[in-house]
Amino acid sequence: MEQAWTLEQAREADASDPLSHTKERFFLPEGVLYLDGNSLGALAKAVPPALARLAEEEWGGRLIAGWRECGWMEAPERVGDLIAPLLGAEPGEVIVADTTTIAIHKVLGAALAARPERKTVLTTSDNFPSDLYACSETARRHGAELKVVERSELLAAIDESVAAVEVTHVDYRTGAVHDLPAVTATVHAAGGLMIWDLCHSAGALPVGLSGNEVDLAVGCSYKYLNGGPGAPSFIYVRRQLQQSLDSPLPGWLGHERPFDFSAGYEPAAGIRRFLTSSPPIAAVTALEAALGAFAGVTIEQVREKSMALTDLFSSVIRQREGSGLELVSPGEASKRGSQVSFRHAAAEAVVSAAAGKGVIGDFRPPDLCRFGLAPLYLSYEDVYLAAGVVAEVAASAC
Ligand SMILES: Cc1ncc(COP(=O)(O)O)c(C=O)c1O
Q1: Which of 12, 112, 264, 382 is the most exposed place for a label (fewest CB within 10 A)?
Q2: Where does ligand 1 bind, in terms of residues with CB under 6 Å?
Q3: What pLDDT does residue 2 have?
Q4: Pairing mode, strands 362-364 and 94-97
Q5: What is the CATH number of the domain that holds 382?
């Protein structure tokens, strides 16, 4: 049930918020209420000095020796291990590499090669476009068919022809959350492999990858993980599957002994076999520093605050009569991610007018206003005030 919030109550919630201190870990421009951390997370204060150190001391000072002496070579696994607890994964199950779309090509290619007798890849029509393109092309290359079903038909469509299911855990438009345990268990019962896109989940809510025996997952690090524009993706491969899955994009850094420079490819033992190329050290350095903003914070605490913030935001907006904003996210906080989306006849104008008053959200065509609420750097008061501005500009745009 949504509570009817007041400004006083929002301030009281801030006073007892166990995460109130993490806002200090970020730079946020004066006069801006930033509700777009589900597109690009804010800049953590630890990032600029880490990048300066990389440039001046490591690259500038150590040159080529940096690969050995500054931990650059191990960075993909080391930073993967920092992300793992946020996903409920074990050390050695997550690696940082590539970008999400490339990572989908890799894990789906590996899954289809592991189920050659099965000829269906299953996904949902509301999946992110890049996922649909990657699924379509990978299926085509493997002589399989891409079956695209409505979200509500997903469970019923899982049968023994399915090699792999690839879906996005939290819908990028509405924030609706798939039932990850149920979908994963159904895919396993039918003998297929399950791949989750966690772009809108990582750093926002618990996903329990190991506990649910998820096979494969990918996600970006520039949203709730705050890795910066174009930050690399992460790839999760369940430990028990690592030796039996092969990356369809082998490269020298996925080799067991890259510095043998041998002509024949021998995949590395473990998660490193999903690497292809040299890691983008500047980007990985920024991400590693940004992940420090989660120090001392559990993903359960993040989720608890996130649900309260999304309740607060939608409740303030819905209390305002005549705003013309229609909630399209699930009404129950437990069924949506860390975002709230509304339909409005003049959605683009609403988002732009709110931005003019310092409240940054985003517009998704044809008619959605989307607001991401990142618990590490938004207070209850911020969200209360932002909701008031959105409701006001929406009412004037009607
Ligand atoms: C759910 C989802 N999947 C995939 C992508 C594509 O990510 P990338 O640009 O890292 O390939 C995005 C981008 O926002 C996304 O939201």
Answers
A1: 264
A2: 99-101, 128, 130-131, 168, 172, 197, 199-200, 220, 233
A3: 59
A4: unpaired
A5: 3.90.1150.10
